[in-house]
Structure formats: structure tokens, C-alpha cells
């Protein structure tokens, strides 16, 4: 199953259900975009979104294939954002943490099957080609050479038709959108080499290039599969980091009482108490208290940071010293760690 297919599995979904509001009043939507394989794709995605009237911010992440978009809801709707990407040749769906792992697994399995077919075909066609190459400098007659060429064609053609689908589909989507991506020249090279080889076989020519076509697909699929695996590991690492966030916060009510609430319910302006040994639940500013904070989760720096009143702090960092009172400045889904 291709990326585009998996990205379009939920055709009836309403993107407005996934839109959130920022503290500035902008609409925010996180999307998963299929078909982003290179920096050129990233520029096209961001360019298509930034070209929409009302879009204030658009940033794509090539590793996770996620795009964060913020726009003025009075001038633009969520459906128009997704439609703009579709017009550029990229299928997009709202980001759903529950499904993203499933989509990556399906893509990996699909690529692995294509890789296996291409590898099998490349090995067998190469064996036949070696026989032909040896015969060209010996006494192989035309009938035998033609037979070997047809054997290569029978192995290569079905394999290319199946294993080349990830590239053919991506290239076709780009061309339909009157655009280009890295899969267009790949698909063109494979199709031309295969077509020329078939014609050469039919006219009983001395040279055919089925081995080049299937071997090219084999190595390209290795690269594409490794890219998907690396992206999956990056997503897993990011999910592990997000798992270290606080799940609840101690809210200081206007009357001075304390109560526990979910971090998702924190709003800018609220005051929270962070005791020693607890993680800071949201991005904010210290109102009272002096302490040391472990910021390695955010910055990678292992040396604790000295903080005091007026210091900005971030969700997920660990309070090591004394209790702190913090004023929340950003919602949980707008925090630095969430991005």
C-alpha cells in the first residue's frame, strides 16, 4: 500500500475537529503529508501553504513528515489548507498519534515486499545477463541469445511493474499537479530503459538493459526503506520524549487553594506550583522561588540551570531544587516540547 493510499484512508474525516486555537487567536492544525522525500518536496509544501491568504506560519518536518500550520480563521478554512497541498501533489490528513504508527508500519511492509521482489528479479536477471555477456565473446548464436533476452524480459517486466509502484505513483501524482519531484526522473529512467530493452528484444538486438532497470529499482528501494526506518526511529524517540512530560499540574486558584488538573486544561495566565523533583507542566515564567532545573530533555545540556523569578521555563524540564510558582504562558499543545 502506497503512502498516498494510506494517507487517504479516512476520506470522510472533518479536519475542523483537529483545529486548535493559539493564544493569539490563530487556528492551528498539524498534518501528516505523504510523499515528502527530499528538501525540494519540503520547500513545495511550505511554499504552497505560505502562499495561501491568511496563513501566518507553516513549517514542515521532513523526518516525521508532519506539517504545522497556523492561520487566521476569519480568512481561511482547514479544508482549504488540505486542498492546497492536494493541488501541489501531496496528500495530507490531520495528525492522529493513534494512527501514525500504523501508517508507518504499512509503508514499511509495502516497501519491504517491493524490495524483495526487486532483489529476486535483479539477481536472476543478472545471472542470465552474465550468460549473454559471456556468449557475446564466444560462439553463442542469435537464437540462444534471443531466448535469454526473453527470459530476462519475463522475469523483469512483472517485477518492475510491482516493485516500481512507490516511484510510479509518486511521479504520476506530481505530474498531475503539474509539478516535479525526485521520483519523476527515477520513473522516467526505469520506464525508458525497460521499454527500450523490450523493443531490442523484439528485434533480436545484441544488447538489452533489463538488468539495469531492476537493479536500479533494487538499490533505490533499499534507500527508501532505510529512510522510512530512520524516520520511524526518529518518531519513536520523539514520542519517548513526549512521554516524559507531566500529566498533571498543581493549580493555584485565586483564593490560594491548590488543586490538581490535567496539563491539557492549563491556560495562559494560570499559576501552578512545581515542587522539587517534579516536571514543569507547561511553558511559563517563574513568579517566585529559586532553584535548579534539569533542561536536558529540551536542550540536551546535562548541567542544571540556575533559575529565579523572571526566568522562562519549558514544559518537560525537571525541577531539582526548591518549590517554584510559575505563570503559564502557553497551552500544552503550543509548548516548545510539543513542537
SSE map:
Layout: H1 3-7, E1 20-21, E2 27-33, H2 39-50, E3 55-61, E4 66-71, H3 78-88, E5 92-94, H4 97-136, H5 142-163, H6 165-176, H7 183-202, H8 210-242, E6 248-252, E7 258-262, E8 271-274, E9 284-288, E10 291-294, H9 296-299, E11 305-307, E12 312-313, E13 318-319, E14 324-328
Antiparallel strand pairs: 1-2, 2-4, 2-5, 3-4, 6-7, 6-8, 8-14, 9-12, 9-14, 10-11, 10-13
Helix pairs in contact: 2-3, 4-5, 4-8, 5-7, 5-8, 6-7, 7-8
Word description of this protein:
The chain has 339 residues and is an alpha+beta fold. It has three domains: 15-95, Alpha-Beta Plaits, CATH 3.30.70.100; 100-241, Four Helix Bundle (Hemerythrin (Met), subunit A) (Up-down Bundle); 248-334, Calcium-transporting ATPase, cytoplasmic transduction domain A (Distorted Sandwich). The chain is built from nine helices and 14 strands. The protein has helices spanning 3-7, 39-50, 78-88, 97-136, 142-163, 165-176, 183-202, 210-242, 296-299, and strands at 20-21, 27-33, 55-61, 66-71, 92-94, 248-252, 258-262, 271-274, 284-288, 291-294, 305-307, 312-313, 318-319, 324-328. It has a six-stranded antiparallel sheet with strand order 7-6-8-14-9-12, with no helix packed on it. Helix 6 (165-176) crosses helix 7. It is elongated, with a radius of gyration of 27 Å.
CATH topology of the largest domain: Four Helix Bundle (Hemerythrin (Met), subunit A)
Provide the β-strand percentage band: 15-25%
**Strands of the largest sheet, in order across it?**
7-6-8-14-9-12
- Tell me what the CATH architecture of the largest domain is: Up-down Bundle
Coarse morphology: elongated
Would you count the extended β strands for me?
A: 14
- Report the biggest beta sheet as strand number plus sense, adding barrel if it closes: 6 strands, antiparallel
Number of continuous helical runs = 9
Query: Which CATH C-level class of the largest domain is it?
Result: Mainly Alpha
Broad structural category? alpha+beta
Mean pLDDT: 83
Helical proportion, percent range: 40-55%
Oligomer: single chain
Q: Termini, distance in Å?
A: 29 Å
Radius of gyration: 27 Å
How many domain regions?
Answer: 3
Give the SSE string: HEEHEEHEHHHHHEEEEEHEEEE
Low-confidence stretches: 1-11
Amino acid at each position: 500500500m502506497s503512502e498516498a493510499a494510506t494517507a487517504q484512508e479516512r476520506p470522510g474525516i472533518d479536519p475542523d475537529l483537529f483545529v486548535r486555537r493559539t493564544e493569539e487567536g490563530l487556528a492551528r492544525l498539524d498534518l501528516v503529508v505523504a510523499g515528502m522525500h527530499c528538501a525540494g518536496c519540503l520547500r513545495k509544501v511550505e511554499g504552497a501553504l505560505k502562499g495561501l491568504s491568511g496563513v501566518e506560519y507553516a513549517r514542515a518536518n521532513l523526518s516525521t513528515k508532519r506539517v504545522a500550520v497556523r492561520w487566521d480563521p476569519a480568512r481561511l478554512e482547514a479544508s482549504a489548507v488540505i486542498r492546497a497541498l492536494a493541488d501541489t501533489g501531496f496528500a495530507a490528513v490531520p495528525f492522529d498519534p493513534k494512527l501514525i504508527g500504523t501508517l508507518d508500519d504499512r509503508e514499511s511492509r509495502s516497501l519491504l515486499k517491493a524490495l524483495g521482489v526487486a532483489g529476486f528479479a535483479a539477481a536472476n536477471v543478472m545471472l542470465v545477463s552474465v550468460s549473454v555477456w559471456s556468449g557475446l565473446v564466444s560462439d553463442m548464436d542469435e537464437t540462444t541469445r534471443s531466448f535469454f533476452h526473453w527470459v530476462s524480459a519475463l522475469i523483469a517486466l512483472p517485477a518492475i511493474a510491482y516493485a516500481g509502484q512507490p516511484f510510479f505513483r509518486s511521479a504520476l501524482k506530481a505530474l498531475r499537479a503539474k509539478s516535479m519531484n525526485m521520483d519523476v526522473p527515477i520513473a522516467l529512467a526505469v520506464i525508458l530503459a525497460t521499454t527500450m530493452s523490450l523493443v531490442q528484444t523484439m528485434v533480436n538486438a545484441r544488447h538489452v538493459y533489463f538488468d539495469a532497470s531492476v537493479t536500479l529499482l533494487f538499490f533505490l528501494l533499499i534507500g527508501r526503506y532505510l529512510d522510512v526506518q530512520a524516520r520511524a526511529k526518529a518518531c519513536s524517540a520523539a514520542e519517548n520524549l513526549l512521554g516524559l512530560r507531566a500529566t498533571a499540574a498543581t493549580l493555584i486558584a485565586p483564593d490560594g487553594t491548590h488543586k490538581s488538573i490535567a496539563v491539557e486544561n492549563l491556560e495562559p495566565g494560570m499559576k501552578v506550583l512545581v515542587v522539587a523533583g517534579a516536571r514543569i507542566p507547561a511553558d511559563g515564567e517563574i513568579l517566585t522561588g529559586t532553584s535548579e532545573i534539569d533542561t536536558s530533555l529540551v536542550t540536551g545540556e546535562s548541567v542544571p540551570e540556575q533559575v529565579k523569578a523572571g526566568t522562562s521555563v519549558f514544559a518537560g524540564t525537571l525541577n531539582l531544587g526548591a518549590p517554584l510558582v510559575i505563570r503559564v504562558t502557553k497551552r500544552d499543545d503550543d509548548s516548545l516540547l510539543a513542537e
